[in-house]
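sorry for the late reply, my laptop died twice this morning and i had to redo everyting from scratch. anyway the thing you sent over, i finally got around to it. pasting the sequence first so we're on the same page, its 317 residues, then the predicted structure underneath. double check i copied it right bc i was rushing
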Amino acid sequence: MRDGNYLIGWGMATATYPTNRSAASAIARIMADGTAVVQSGSQDIGTGTYTVMTQVAAEALGLPVDKVRFELGDTKMPETPVSGGSQTAASVRSSVHLVANQARSQLLQLALADKKSPLYSSNAEDVIAENGSFFLKNKSSATETYQAILARHGMKMIEARADAKLGEEQKKFSMHAFGSQFAEVRVNPDSGEVRVTRWVGTFGVGRILNAKTANSQLIGGIIYGIGMALMEHTVIDQNRGRVVNHDLAEYHVPVNADVPDIQVLFVNKHDPHINPLGVKGIGEIGITGTAAAIANAVYHATGKRVRDLPITLDKLL
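ok and here's the structure:
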């Protein structure tokens, strides 16, 4: 296919990456003023851990997001795994969800056992937690705020700690995230220059915790893959064993002009085996298959099969 003098190529590749999870712990405190603090010794390397864990905690606690503060990044906090192997969301979320449920349950038990509470002697299964209050499903007038419960008991806060450990599921099942990568490239037949002009990535990555951050993270992974395919190359001095292009002046990575419109689509499929919440990591699945899709598109455009990355112009002329 051609567009003027340019050769146009289409390529695709599949993507798969293991679904990893490690043991993680967290602490949750529901405060007397109706707010909550959740702590876990994780880290946010730009992937949205602060945002997502705040959402997870708020949902489980029955509080508005603006009433919950998630804290991380201190070794004094409960232990979690490193950010590697696409495991942070699945690991930390499991502990945050568990501890938030425990804290909310402890607070509810105070109300159910208190004769002064409108919820006294009710069944816990009949109580809904929402917007910082408990109320009965079939009797909305029977309601009480978290603040009122703690105030009546003279408590500054209620605290819970949880350790989310691994189950037997990882011994029974092979667990992966999946995807398909679709690329369009333009190749200048005179210079050998390759430009990626369109991209669609489709991913089955379990439950999406935050569509905005997930979309952004997968776009970032695809951009990494574009760099892998067309630019990034570590040059080693064969005599001294040192990297000679050790800075961004000579080690090339994609910039805005190198990145096309990228569309990310999600396949909404729940996996009941990977972890209690069906969360799969997305940190690396966006990179997987990207270079292969570009190589296939270059082959489609030029008829030349390049198997040594990066695909530079000297390999096409």
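The two ends are 18 Å apart (CA to CA).
thats about all i looked at so far, will dig more tmrw
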